[in-house]
Each structure stands twice: as C-alpha cells, then as structure tokens.
Amino acid sequence: MPAFGQDGATAASQHSGSTQLEDIVVTARRTSEALQTTPVAVTAFSNEALVERQVVQATDLQRAAPAVSVGTGGTGPSSILYISIRGQAQNSPNSFSDNAVGIYIDGVYLGRAIGANVGFLDLSSAEVLRGPQGTLFGRNTTGGALNVTTNAPTDKFEGYMKVGYGNYDANLFEGVLNLPLNPTLAARFAGRYEDHKGYYPAPYLKNALGSLDASYLARGSLKWEPDNLPVTWTVSGDYTEQHGSGPAFIVAGLNPASPVAYYYGLAQHQQANPGLIGVEPDAILSGALGFPVPSSDVRKFIPQGLEGPFTQFGNPAFPNFGGLLSNNPNTSYQYNAFGNPKLDQLGVLGDGTKGWSGTSNLVVDLGNLSIKSITGYRKSRSFNVFNLSALPTAAGAGYSVYRNRQFSQELQLSGDFGALHFITGLYYFREHGTESTEADTFEYTPIGSPVFNNANYVQSSKGAFFQANYNFTDALRVTGGIRYTWDTRHINRHNTNTWKVAPEFQTCVVGPNAGIPNTGDDCNNPETVKFNYPAWTAGIDYRLSPDVFVYAKTSGASMSGGYNSRPVPPPYSTSFKPEDVRDVEVGFKGEFLDRHLRTNLAAFYSWQSSVQRIVNAVVCEGTPPQCASTQFVNNAGKVHTYGLEAEATLLPWEGMRIESSFAYLHARYVSGSRFENQLVGGAVVSVDRSGEPVPYSPKWTANLGLTQDFDVGKDRLTLHGDYSYISSRQFDFFTTGDPAQAAAVAIANDASRIRGYGLFNAVVTYAVTDPKMEISVWAKNLTDKANFTNVFNSYTGIGVTAQNPGPPRTYGFTLTYHWGE
C-alpha cells in the first residue's frame, strides 16, 4: 500500500525558538486556508512536528491529537489501521465493510484499511479532521478523515540520509533525493527500510510475536510546471512491502465451560499460568510432518486417553484433522500453505502486505477558476496466519488472504470571485478483489469443522458535490454544501466447510448447492445491493477580532452498507444498511499574549442511526454439531454522542514550546433503539441492548508535549518529552436473553474492556550546522507501561477473550545527514 510521506511544510512547522506563533495553513476544506479561520476541528502536523513528537506511523497519531484512538491487531494483519475519531470506527479487516474515518493520500481515498499502518516517509503535511466530512471528502467519513500529503519535487538539489538502531535489534535506513532536471521538470525519490525483532516471546513458536521482519517503502515522483501553460502536473508511484510475525495476543478471559476448555483441558493450565502468550497452530501434528516433535508441555493440553489419535496425521476417527490446507482442493499459490512458505502455519504465525500505487494530480489555473484532476490506482495483497485465542492450540487458528485493486477519479472546479468561493466536482471509485479466510475453530476436536470463506467482490461509488462560502462582510461568512452518492456493491460467496479430507471436502454452505458434499459444482452465492444517500454541511463563522474566530455548523455523512462474506447465524441478516450521522458543532479559535498563546476549542453533539457493529460468533450445524468461528457486521440501533475538545500551544519563554490537548467524549445508545432477536432454547427472544456502552469510545484522551531549544554556538540542542493518556475503552459488549449465559457474558464483557493507560516518550536531538546533520537519542513508552490496542472476544463462542498488547519500552538513536540547498 502507499508509502506515507514526511517533510517540513506549512502545518505546525514552527520551531520552538520562534518568538511568536506562526500561521498554519491547512487543506481541510480541499483548498489552502489558515487554520485559525477554518471552521473545522482539525489538528495539523508538518514533518518537523511529527519528527519532534516521534510520530513515525499512523498509529502514533493517538499520542498527538484529541479524541483519536488508533489500534492494530484484532483479526487482521499488522498492516491494518483501526482508527476511531469521536467514538466512530471500524474494527474488522472485512473487505465488505468500511471505516468511519476516511484515509486520503495526496487526495486519493484509500478504500481498504489493510496496508495503511506503514511508516511515514517524506511527508509535507498530515491533518486529522474531526467530525463528519462527507460533503467534500465523500462517504465513509462519518467520524472524520486523515488527510496526508507527500512532498512534491522542488527546484532545489537536496536530500538526506538517515540511519538508526534500537533495542529489539531495530534497524532503520532512510533517504530522500530531490533532483531538478530542467527549469520546468523535477524529480524526487524516497526510500525506507526498517526491521526489529518481536516484543513478546511465545512458547512453541519460532519467532517472538510483534516482530517486523522487513519493511520496504519506496516512492518516486515527477513535477512538471511548463513556462507557457498554466499547468502544474505531479505524478507519483510507490511500493510497500511488510512482513512480520503478526500481532501478539494475551488471554484476558478463558471460559471453563467452553468447548475449548473441555477438549483441551486448558482451564487448569490457565489458572496456573495467567497471562499466557503465544500459540502453536498444528503443533500437535508437526512431528508427523517432519517438524520438531512437540514437547510434553504441548501434549498435556490433549485430553487424557486421546494422545494417540491427536498425534496421528489424518486419523480417520477425526476426519477434520490434517494440517492447514493439506487437502484443500484450491491449490492456487496464494491459498496453499505448502506452495507458499509465507503461509506456512506449521510452527509459525505471520503476516505480510505488498502494495503498489500510482497517483496523478493535474491543476489548471485559469485565474478566478481552477480545474483539478485527481487520479489514483492502488493494488495490494495481504495475508495473515493467526490464532486469535492466544492459546497453544488451534482454537481460533486460521489464515486470511486479501487481494484488492482500486481506481478513483475526481474532477474539481473551484472559483474565487471576491466574496464568493466555491468548489464543485464529480467523483468515481471502483474496487474489486477477493477475500479468503480459513477458520479452524475446533480443528482437533470431534465438533471441529474448518470453514473456508472465499468471496470475490466488485464495489463502485459515484458522487457529485458542491460547496460554497460567501462573505457578507470581512468578518461574517456563511458556508453551505451538499453531496449525493450512489453505491453499488456486488459479492459472490464460495464458502465451504469440512473440505480437508475426502470425500467430505467442497461442501457448500451458501447458494443453491448448500449442503451438497463433493458435487464438483461451484459454490456460488451472488448478491448485489445498491444504496444512495446525501451528505451536507451548513455553517456560519465570525471574526470577533483579527485574533479571535468563532463558528457554528451542522453536517451529515454516511458509511456505506453492504453484504457479509462470512457465515451469519440466525436471526442476524446477511446484509447491513448504511450508517448515517448528523451533528452540530460550535468552535472557538483564538490567539493571545501577542501571539504567544493559541487555544482552539470545539463542542459537538451527534446523532448516529443504523450503527454498524462487528459481531464475533460461532456457527454450529448438523448432528453431531460441526462448529466454526465467524465475524460479521450488524446494524445496531441509534447512538447519541457529545463531547468537548481543546488544544493549546504556548511559547512561555525563548526556546520553549508547550503543546497540549484533551477531549471528553460521552456516547450512549438511545433507549429502546436497539432491540435484538436472539435464539434461546430454540425460541426467538427479543432483547433490549440499548443499555450497553458504546465501543471504541474513551471518555478521556489527553496529550502534553514540552520542547526546549538551546543554542550551542551555531548548533542547537533540543529536549522533548510528551505524555499521552487514553481512558478505558469497551471493544465489545453483549446483552444476553439467556439467563444461563448471564454469568459468562458478564465475564466476557469485562475482559473486552481495555483499561486506561498513559505513555511517556522522550527524545534529545543535537543539530550541527556544518556539516548539516542531527543525532537523536529517543525512547518510547519510557516507563514500560502495559498498553493494549485491540480485543478479540469469543468468550461465549470459542471460549476465549484475548487482547493485543502494544509495544513495550523501546529506545535507540538516529543519525541524519542533509545535503543541498
């Protein structure tokens, strides 16, 4: 996927040695304007600001912007980015559901969150926009947007080289080269490589979990500005590749009454070994396949008396055994573990992502009018071999493969006629790909039934928009805009189960051939759904003085609906509707003390309907039951949210800069809006779930950064420290209508909440003037605080709730050498 950018520019780029706060220019409304007179809640960063705060990838933005929660892990590969703004988020890598926060790179929308969590490289600016952005940015921006702009080529010969090393054997190599080719044409090249060992040693695994085995990012760009045409044309292409051992999981709850505890005897072991980390899918079979024979520690998880059958490859008494994909009729390279070492689950977990992209930005300046064309193409392949249960068994084990191609084209016409400024445009987006997941929920048990979820999709979106600002006076301005979107989503499911051992493989679970084993016919279940919906904004703003600005606005946006590719148990629906959000927001932006103090405030209230939620479940069919895990999207009633956000920057004395932010968020379901039919003892029971906490909604987030510069002759010494805090977050919650499940559900709900934590980071940089270079010594999570980023909850299904731990204390140094003008 795309290589994010990083370099000095207009947003928050002021050095702490400045005597006054400088202007910040943002593009939050698809045009350049001053932050302090933009009626949007936005936090902007330049390269210098990002480097100073050690924001080296998108997950670090949680430490620098209010009301933002960023996580990785979950059920996807390490490259996936789960970003939540104002409590609105996506928590599944499912290719058929979308994010509530749009990610834009050089104006191009990134349709899939997989591949978004890569390092920042050669960036011009990064902006976090909070609140619905549907009018100008389109669908799937109900929570906000991350707007990233990479550095375009310049007319200067310049560049830098950077090397770094840290604990966990972390290595970094990065470089940028800018070349003016002639007076009208320039080129720019950037590259980055990094790796580090795993953070969490895991029993029975070859590698520690959380490792980054290799990450490659490269980008090349050309910029053409002819003398005789009012044209600026920038084209770029990038490549990203990343491999590692995958996210770590730690057991947060083990259900002693679950099938996994019964068949594996893990309840007693978990009590003796709390906080067990690590898994070994297929470890029991590895000896039969030429891998090291499992230790006695592994064998003690096998029920007494079944040691023999459990160590025999393909034992007929247990027809669902056989190792990952050993008898998969689909032998194509990307699905066959034995044909692709990167998918080999025997003794190792792992994931990886490859991506390619190309972008074209063409601007024609016609004076009062400007025409802009933004064209983007992206292609990606990702996989992850996982065990979501965090147990040294195959409970929750499996693999996923994601393939995606997307194309987008946007045409904009903007005009500036004194008091009137407008922008209008047309938008087209199309993506197609495949998603394949093999789930071995209870693979080594008599009830196990591996399910192969394989689906291909084609999804398109068309939109038209118009937004205008009109200045009645130099101080009073009104804004209005509308957008209309048309979505078409097509899916064809080819899901099968019990396909590992003949003659039972290729049993369809969807479509007209459902339940027919080994017919030789394809499993096809095509579905098409269409949606159309508006987005809008209307607002008024007023400059009380040259340094004080206030605004009020209302906005609406939608997150697209779709179909689930994986099995959906009754009484849930296979399809889900768009989620709609509308809000009101008031804001204050001011500068005081002769521009030594800047304060920005925003308060909002939002209404969400047809809220999309991720459900983890186990599907059992037949007699005796055959069971497998599944994950799907469901509409879940209405949510009301309100909150307050504040940001402040202070220059108290020469060389000192203090930056802080905090956010308060209150989210709740509307009483009586979320009734759900549940099957209890074979009967349908209506359950009111509107009293549940809203997931991904921390009540408090806060950040504080201190930077002090000292002049040392012609050189400079910079000391920086920052602290970030996020309060507890509920990732999953369930209200059951079955009294027999009430106690287990209560435990699961508690295990699905991540406790609040605070992280402290520091960096010391010495910058030399001649030669121009810097050396930095840095540390993240300096106090080695336990922190978690995501949750997988299947306590009442598989029998396990597991959490993804974040990085422990890391530290190291970087050395950067600059050349050119």
Gap between N and C termini: 31 Å
Query: How is the main sheet built?
Result: 22 strands, antiparallel, barrel
Mean pLDDT metric: 81
Number of distinct helices: 7
Fourth-tier CATH superfamily name: TonB-dependent receptor, beta-barrel domain
Helix content, binned percent: under 10%
Roughly what fraction of the amino acids lie in strands? over 45%
Q: Return residue spans where pLDDT drops below 50 for at least 5 consecutive residues.
A: 1-14, 265-347, 499-505
Overall geometry comes to: globular
Radius of gyration, taken over Cα atoms and rounded to an integer in Å:
27 Å
Q: Tally the structural domains.
A: 1
In total, the number of strands is 45
Architecture in CATH?
Beta Barrel
Organism: Sphingobium baderi
Keywords: Cell outer membrane, Ion transport, Iron, Iron transport, Membrane, TonB box, Transmembrane, Transmembrane beta strand, Transport
GO cellular component, one term: cell outer membrane
Membrane topology: Multi-pass membrane protein
